[in-house]
Every structure is written in C-alpha cells, then in structure tokens.
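Curious: can you check?
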Amino acid sequence: MLMPWIALSAGNWRRFSSFTSLPIVLAMFSFFLLPESARWLVSVGQIDKAMEILKNVIEVNKKYVSQEVLDLFEASCTQFYKEELNGRDFTVCSIFRGKRMARYMILMIVIWMAISLVYDGHVRAASVLDSDNIFVFFTIACATELPGNILVILTLDRCGRRWCSFFYTSLSGVFSLVGATLHKREYMRISALTGRFFANICYNIGLQWAAEILPTVVRAQGVAFIHTMGFVAMLMSPPVVYLSKKSLSSTLVVLGVLGIFGGLLSLFLPETLNHELPETLSDGAEFGKNQRIWHMPCCGPGSRKSHPRHNWHQGSSLRTLSKDEFRSSKMFRKTKYRQHEANPSRSSSEREIRTYKYGNGAKWPEDSS
C-alpha cells in the first residue's frame, strides 16, 4: 500500500529501487534467526543437529518428553538413515517416476501458473483500470491483501485446501468476467477489485497446498520448481494487460477464464487437511487414492483425521516402502515374518525380533500389499 507513495516521493527510479530493496536486505538476516528443518537434517544424516532443534522446541513450548523417547527417536533415525537414505539422491525427476505423483505435479504446475498469471495480471491491471488516479487505485487494490489473508486464516483449516482453492479461484474468475461485461468504468473497477481480492486468497492457498502434497524427500525441490513455473507464467501478464489498449474487457476476460480454469483443476488434487502428509515417494503414490471428488474436511468422512498406516518404524517418522526406495534388511525380515504368518508355531528368535520391533503383546503386521 505504501509502494506507490514511496515511488511518488522518490521521484527517481534509482532511489525507488534502493528504498524498496531495504526490506529484502533485512530479510537476509533471518538466516541467523530461523532454525533448519529437523526432517531435512535427518534426511541428510545430521541427526545430532536435528535433536538439538527438537529439544529446543520442547523447551520453548514447555513440554515434557522422556529421555527414553528421545533416545529411541534418535537411534531409530540414525539406523534409518544408514539403511535407507545414505547415498540416495532425490531430485525433481523422482516425482515423475510414479503416475499418481506425476499427475499431481503436472496439475500443481498448471494450477499455479494460472493463479500466478491471474494474480500478477490483476496487480498490473490497476495501472489501466484507473489511469487518472493510479496511486490511489493501486493503494486500494493492495489493501485487499489484508482481509484476504485473514479470510484464508479463518477458512483454510476448516473447509480444506481443495474446496477453498476451487471456491476462491473460481470467484476471482467470475468477478473478472462480470467486470468485462460492465460498461460503466466505476462498476468495472469494483468488480475487478473483487476479483483481485479473491486472487490474493487463492495465491496464498497455493503456497500452502503444494508444500503439503509433495513428499518430504522432494518437497523443497518440487515447490521451487512449481514456483519457478509460476514466474514463467507471470511473463505473460504484461501482454495480457496490454490487451487493454484494444479493449479493457479483453484483459478481464483472459483473467476470468484462467481463474475459472484453475479453480476447476483444483478439484482433481487431493485434500491434505486432516490427512497424514506424505513423506516418501511411496506415500505420495498412495496419497489421495481413496478420496472422491465430494471429499470434504468440514463434513462426512473427510472430517475425521487419518491415522498413520505404517507404524512399524517405531520412533522415526521417516519411512520408505517402494522397491525403488527400500534397501533395508528390515524389509526382508518383515517379508520373512509374513511367510511364517500361517504357521502358529514360531521360534523363540522370531518372537524376540517381533517384541523388539512391535513391543510386547503387539499383533503381527497385516499384509497391506
């Protein structure tokens, strides 16, 4: 909201660039304040640093976790890294090895490109919707960010990512198309501002949603690739806004069609609210498999939290299951257990191993294949 007035007071694009770069310079100091991701540290074998961060979180939150649980978690993560992740290299290409994850990735790229183009197009359209009072109109348009962000906070964890994305993105497109049909410039501006309001919301939802759908082992690279494609889509926003030279309605029509298109595609992505998020490529291949298009977190089966399907890596939340990922001797022992499932008489050594892995009185794991 302050940016147009900073530009006006600067009177020079060099001074304006210098003033607006100061917050970015300050953001660089966040490196010394924000801790590293504990899960990422575990995935690269830096277990000690991960434990220091977790212990600090326990202390700050004034919680109690027994030393036995901490030791079990640390030992499990250490063993898991040595047997599963050591020497493994996950890239963006790993996402496209499975059909389901590849489909999700392509959908997220297309949706994010549409949302990015709609959002950036509305930002730039402020300069042509009211060229006589561009500073005031730009400030009003930017003021829609705050209530939009508040609405995201109030609805995202209640209605879920998918329906919120569909609802808000589609509304952005609808109001843009309505504005294109209006002849009075004042009504067109109001409709365009409403479309900008909903575009702010769906842009923030996309930032959250992509990070939850992608598994932990490829999350950072996958999200970065999706955002990069969003920046590529933003390259088309100046030509879209330039259509206003021919007709201002043309700009709003393009933004409206893209908004509705992105909203409809959102229905084909899985809901993440109340679900255990994927951590490995195997989890990603199964994630959302049992969800239907009417799956809603606020009512019905979607309102209940899902429970972890695999609990045999006690103490560690990281796990792998697929043939491409798994190289651990644990899997071969687990396969051997299944072979003995039909035999009621088990050797004492087998029972000792079962007790070590699953605890006393625990049932043998069911065959989920």
Q: What stands out?
A: Residues 35-88 form one domain. The chain is about 65% helix and 0% strand.
